[in-house]
């Protein structure tokens, strides 16, 4: 995270950049021109807060700061949205794959029957579930761009809620008794609903996670030295606190997911799919009510316009003169240590007219590009994760279920997360910190790959024994008599996926926030989620294996790919571990949408010089 003093402003409805004069420098209504510039006072902030020295950074314990209640209200909004999403998608597989039970017009099947509606089979089911995932995670790119450039995060979230509500309503229509009895017509209606549903989900996801962390950062932009209740000197670390916030945020996500999935699975089983689509819609409507009620409580960073175009223009300017017909030479030219340095405005004699930013923003863009490179490996991780919502659900249907619906078993995943998140947050991560072991984001993500690999190994072993013990052999999916294997043997696979999410998914959200330029956070978060969309597209190549008698090969192949992906990720990015502290400590930048948006240039330069002195004193520059 950028720990420089923020230049935040209250968001307006217009796509204009924030002004600089008399902006915040760690607290509201503080004029940055009054910031101390004397070298002796360099580690004292404008409000008297004390910044840590290099020695203090290396020796003092780091603690999590106080989290304001307003942050939890955003987590509740996300809980309602996730209840709406997971409660709805939890029944997709059965809705598409299995036909209406005999005598049913709603899809309900009673205690021991198999709920179903359209009857298009496992391959169509897998393909459409993957399409929904692809579309839902493609849209964050568009939503992030619109938020950063034109609408701002708050307004984009409200637009997302409207679009998603339309999608929810169309899905309800596709499942009502008069429609669901016509499978072809119901499928067409269902697909239209998916398009609106996924667009709303995508616009929402890329903006809600940056918004929750910005509420804390607005009041606590830098690490400070404080005295705790025991009288000990400690460092109140914003980076550690942001990580803590995202852990709790993910906890709320999984409360919504768990309750939504379990309740809707029973709704489909005993009442019908129309109820399983209606109840999530009702709870989802709490989102706009909370957003409107609390609108004046939230810090809302304004859009700054033309952010993406200027970052890309800066990249291509840096690339100019470095491209060769020889790819190896091009690579060497770009690795000379001056790729970004030579395009900093202070080093250009004739700056282009579009260069309305300072040197610090170039550093932020460089860090954002590094984050995007890290996310390039995520499609491999999501490939294993995605099996949880389609093929593992189908696998469960081939085992002994008793009175348990096949699509309730994967709720072991959010249930495990609700247990494992507090354990990691309260015990495992603090233990690493106390021991002086830096469990950096790169190490966490690598561990996430390892856990996902083990999960797929477990799934492959289970599938092997299903084929071995089924009366129908390797065509167990079409068999009326299941093998003598209880469905709960899937538990280790779901628990391992949950552990991988803590290491890879939560850390990815944190990485998107802390490494992106402040006025590109929604877009970079969109890039993070787009990796899941790309993974869904990649998974389409494996649909041919998603049927008997090839399911063993499906899970084995994905396990091997995940293992190789994790090894490749560590080799590619292990060098970033050593840079983590410096990357998080970049000073605040000055970015204006155009040169007509005047700022107090001298005040901005004075503040940047002060921040540079702080970083030098801390050994981070």
UniProtKB/TrEMBL annotation:
Comp. bias intervals (Basic and acidic residues): 20-30
| Protein topology in the membrane | Multi-pass membrane protein
Read off the InterPro entries from this record: MFS_trans_sf, POT_fam, PTR2_symporter_CS
* Transmembrane portions of the chain: 127-147, 159-179, 185-204, 249-267, 273-294, 447-467, 487-511, 523-547, 553-573
Q: Which SUPFAM superfamilies match?
A: MFS general substrate transporter (SSF103473)
Alphabetical UniProt keywords: Membrane, Transmembrane, Transmembrane helix, Transport
**Looking at the record, which segments are called Disordered?**
1-41
This protein's GO CC annotations: plasma membrane
UniProt keyword Zinc-finger, yes or no: no
The family line of this record is: Belongs to the major facilitator superfamily. Proton-dependent oligopeptide transporter (POT/PTR) (TC 2.A.17) family.
- Name it: Major facilitator superfamily (MFS) profile domain-containing protein
Please give the organism: Monosporascus ibericus
